[in-house]
Amino acid sequence: xxxxxxxxPVYNEADNIHKCxxxxxxxxxxxxxxxxxxxVDDGSTDTSFxxxxxxxxxxxRIKVIQLRNNFGQTAALSAGxxxxxxxxxxxxxxxxxxxxxxxxxxxxxxxxxxxxxxxxRKSRKxxxxxxxxxxxxxxxxxxxxxxxxxxxxxxxxKAFRNELxxxxxxxxxxxxxxxxxxxxVGASITEVEVNHRPRTAGRSKYGISRTLRVILDLITxxxxxxYSTRPIHFFGAIGLVSGAIGFLIAAYLSVLRxxxxxxxxxxxxxxxxxxxxxxxxxFISIGLLGEMLSRTYHESQxxxxxxxxxxxx
Length: 313
What we know:
By secondary structure, the chain is α/β, with parallel strands linked by helices. 49% of the residues lie in helices and 12% in strands. The chain contains ten helices and seven strands. Strand 1 (4-10), helix 1 and strand 2 (35-41) form a beta-alpha-beta unit.
């Protein structure tokens, strides 16, 4: 098992790969640790894979994983995690905007006993309107929703202990939520300022269009963090409130009809109360179905509902 694995997903970064390898290898050579550099070619359509193949033939510490299609950064990182051998794993972008010179600082924090260290691009070199402002808003929302306070969820430059990744499954665009998921399983996390450089070659693969996907994945992460083992608490609460309001309205209308002989045939409130009662029944039913699915999921996969940090014997 090597000491350090660097995972770098790339998509059409042929112009940046050679310089990226040079910088990363130069930094790692100053560290007294064995290392590997794992590139994941996420279905590039340029000459990225050919460039990576040539570099692999020159240095067997460079590993290359080629995906059959462009599955996205989350899938590329997951593929890298599945094939690393390092005790500590560092992720970074292959566009040279992350500075490899920050790697020793991240690894040092891990050596001090932390489980995860996240980079914070405090002086970010990206367009203000299309990248920095949406990112600022998104980070505030994610921090508030997940209760893991970070300035920069979107920074790929991160370091982890290898054993931490065994507790995290990634889907959709969830790579940016790794700190939130890690916090949920009890990992110790910190954030450090890192250098961020302007892109000098290639084209950015990110845009404001990702915002919708991030919001949807945020809802998923929040639900999984809070209610994955008790969905009835989420759906049942909505159902009880809806049903209770509907029942109270129906009781009020019953008094009007039976005591004061008020006609209800032209009262939309009657239909509204029936609707609320039916919605309440449906949400409680969904919660019960969710409970059965949750138990099937955890029991069939022997999925733990807790995570042990250490045992003293």
